[in-house]
Amino acid sequence: MSEKRTLSKQTRTNWLVDAALFASALAAMLSGVYFLYFPNGYQGGRNPLYDVTVIFSRATWGDVHTWGGVLMLLAVVIHFSIHWSWVKMMGKRIGKAARGQAGPMSRGAKNNLLVDVVIAICFVLAALSGVYFLFAPEGSAADPHFLFSRTTWDMIHTWSGTLMIGAALVHFAIHWGWIKKVTIKIFAALRPQSQSGVTVSHS
């Protein structure tokens, strides 16, 4: 007989939101890598790398990047709302520590907080620049120069996204134990069981 594995509703919700965030971020990242290696527009036919097909066409990669980014934004908003109490707690703790009213944080907690802050800042920059390109896409007649030029927005989007990917990988490594444990339990719960509670084997 196998041990019955249960998960709280909150843990399931966290895992589903994180899975949606991971999938949308992966779509945005892979499409972003495509545009990093095959940048720029048609340039009147002077760009030989324009519309290079790597699995998908350039237009399809553009759609993947746009909608992957939109879904990631929605997932982040939900993720942030779920963990809002933790955000407030950490904000109060940092404020108290700055005033000398709280004990020092552990090394692990400091590293986790630093990574989370980097991800948050990079995400805001990538999201804002992404919204800019959503309303002022490449190839439009004129550069609207909203706060910055299109070139500057492009640099912000590229490097904030690149740094966010690196920080996200570190975040993933830090929380790998929780990810592995919950994922195993999620898929174990999906396996059919007999009335006696024994997991049915398909081998």
Gist of the model:
The chain is mainly alpha-helical. It is built from 6 helices and no strands.
Give the secondary structure arrangement, pairings included.
Elements: H1 9-37, H2 58-82, H3 84-98, H4 107-135, H5 150-174, H6 176-190
Helix/sheet category: mainly alpha
Beta-strand percentage? under 5%
- The Cα radius of gyration reads 22 Å
Portion in helices: 55-70%
The number of strands is: 0
Low-confidence stretches: 198-203
Query: How many helical stretches?
Result: 6
How far apart lie the N and C ends?
16 Å
Shape: globular
Spell the H/E element sequence. Answer: HHHHHH
Major sheet details: none
**What is the residue-mean pLDDT, rounded to a whole number?**
80
Can you give a write-up of this model?
- The protein is mainly α and 203 residues long.
- 68% of the residues lie in helices and 0% in strands.
- The protein has six helices and no strands.
- The chain has helices spanning 9-37, 58-82, 84-98, 107-135, 150-174, 176-190.
- Helix 1 (9-37) runs antiparallel to helix 2 (58-82).
- It starts with 8 loop residues before the first helix and ends in a 13-residue tail after the last helix.
- Residues 198-203 have low confidence and may be disordered.
Q: Can you tag this structure with a few keywords?
A:
203 residues, mainly alpha, 6 helices, 68% helix, disordered C terminus
